[in-house]
Design goal:
homodimer, alpha+beta, Alpha-Beta Plaits, six-stranded mixed sheet, about 20% strand
Amino acid sequence: MERFREFAHKHLSEVVEDLRNFCALPGMAGRPEELQAAASWVAQALEESGLRVEVLSAGGPPVILAEREVAGRPTVLFYDHYDVQPAGEEREWLFPPFSPRLYRRRLYARGAVDNKGTLLARLWALRAWQDVEGGLPVGVRFLVEGEEEVGSPHLAEFVLRYAERLRADGCIWENGTVSADGRPHLYLGMKGLLSVELEVRGATTELHSGWATIAPNPAWRLVWALSRLKSPDEEILIDGFYEAVEGPDHEEILRVRRLPFPETDYLQAWKVPAFLQGMSGSTLLLCQFYSPTCNISGLSGGHVGPGERTIIPAVARARLDFRLVPRQRPEEVLEQLRRYLDREGFEDVHIRPLGSPLQPFRTPYEAPFVRAVVEATRRAFRKPPAVFPIAGGSGPIFLFGQGLGLPVVGLGIAHPGSQVHGANENVRLSDLERGIVHVAALLGRLAEGLPG
Amino acid sequence: MERFREFAHKHLSEVVEDLRNFCALPGMAGRPEELQAAASWVAQALEESGLRVEVLSAGGPPVILAEREVAGRPTVLFYDHYDVQPAGEEREWLFPPFSPRLYRRRLYARGAVDNKGTLLARLWALRAWQDVEGGLPVGVRFLVEGEEEVGSPHLAEFVLRYAERLRADGCIWENGTVSADGRPHLYLGMKGLLSVELEVRGATTELHSGWATIAPNPAWRLVWALSRLKSPDEEILIDGFYEAVEGPDHEEILRVRRLPFPETDYLQAWKVPAFLQGMSGSTLLLCQFYSPTCNISGLSGGHVGPGERTIIPAVARARLDFRLVPRQRPEEVLEQLRRYLDREGFEDVHIRPLGSPLQPFRTPYEAPFVRAVVEATRRAFRKPPAVFPIAGGSGPIFLFGQGLGLPVVGLGIAHPGSQVHGANENVRLSDLERGIVHVAALLGRLAEGLPG
């Protein structure tokens, strides 16, 4: 372990330089040239890490497959992506989102964690092994795609087509956190995702609000429809929505009770006085792991800005995302939503699905691969990880977990203030360094074979 | 009358040229130079119409007083304004809002009706009298201010200070409509106005929506608060809101039943299949005249636009305007709103009043001045006007009606598709022409003295 720690420490400034260059290539959905540039960068970085690289596709932007088999040893598959979320309002950023800047031992940029920083920590772990030991202890494969942030619409086709090339003993996902006090968090699954836009139209143009007595106002219709979707006590009211939801069994509740969760770190990072409904302790975590969500990610309509405009808006829109727990299906939730809005008298609310829906997936605690990753994490951090049954986020994990039958564990370098998807996304340099050691330890542990 | 009609017809292209020049000077709240330019233009136009002009102020942008007394004759006061509402989304406009364009016998520009076109019709009526008769038949005063669209915050002070200079036998307001079939609508009052912004804040930055289980979402809070303000059957739920509201008496109901209202014109102009709650006929008009409103004029929060961002918004905002009927007071409604939100558990919803509140005011049908204006309108249009007890819009009418004790009647050149306050505001050239004749007829009728 010590030689890997030394390697990571010694090469940290090179890793940061790599990450700066990588983050300066945005890679945003719908911009093929950006995606191409980011993909080429990744392909080269994988090659320089000693892997055989192929740039493939199944109809979308490039999917990069890289591999190095080690005869007689297990093989691990790393899932990563080179695309990023849009930056959002640039004025909310301390530094321009695609001009990476170091500040107080953190690198700020869109993608600094999700997923560029995480991918680089992995590549530098391979380099560490080759530098320290002259080779790799296990087989590794990387699948790096460019559509994760829009629901990976072409990945199912790709995984089907290249299933043979993706054989492995387990899959490492791109997500994982290190708490402020340095305790790593692993994730055994991800929630499903359904994103939609609700739109209501009134008159074809804005009207003088003196007509508000008799002219339809799409903003009111939207507000009333939304208020029927979730009650102020956070209960989602869509008929049948909770039918497939399974609560934790007794053993799972006991596990969750033992999990640490740095509540204060999160409250401080978010600058809020309390979590929803004053939750804390295991209630908080049980809700996070076992509850699906119905989230408003955007609202728009009429005029809110400089100047006053007393008008009736012509159109009002809301963006919603539903994070789903295992056994819920996004396609079914979409149908439930339509049926429910109709039944409640909101046939005028148009639903437009956004991106591709994602299925939820969870790996059981007991999987041997999980136990090996836990043991490796303990070695790298000198303390046991907290193993979270599922993450709040979503990804195409179902294709690997259910589709390829692989155990999947999320492991990475986020911290509670990383602002993934928000403004000022950032990675702590210490997490980059520890992330290299973490993956190096994982490769070493897997070489010892999976526990029986 | 015929000679005024000939004058208006002959000079229409000059009127249009004037209006083009006037509309090219925006005059937007918060932009002193624009307001100054528009005010100077007005002062000169008033002077060229044969009036003695003074440019005054009571702390805000210029207020222009112009007058010409005629010994032994009544005096009429015209209220107008040179400021305009912001253009809104410029991409919604057929032509740039401040580059006036003629298209199908309409002039398109912000202010084409409200209030620049209306003011010009009045000035050209004065010129008509002087051209046709060599002088004016009655005394006229004009008060033209530059803060109407933001609630006339300095006008109360001005009216108090210059009350003596504003003496008159009646006041003509800036609003009035001509239906598609050429029937003029007069208005005997205006609703009051309270505009507010509601704001809810969550975490200091947007969060990954994977935290929607436990992190507060200000957009949901806002939706729930709004949904408690008005029910889907359009009932405003704020405690005490309707207490001061008086319904129409039997005689007023009978009057309203006789009023024409071009329902089809409005439905076609707005391109909606029906009015709110399927109302029509006298129900529609009784609602328009005697009901206060609670209107959402804007909604914003998080991300609704190109790209997908699965986030929890950091802040959510709504703009509301309340149009109030006589005896309701905006200051009281503001207090009721705060008390109600608190009582309903929405202490976290911040209320920011916008602009200046406006009091409602109505002149009685029976006022002699009203009867004179009705008679003049009949002469100009060769058909009787529809007299509406109150307009849906708002203005500082209370200062003149209640403050100076004047009867006030709104008379003007809008049509059902004028899009006042919306995109593509426009005036029909035929309405400009008829508007000149209308005001000329009014001056003539007033010269005969008010009915006893």
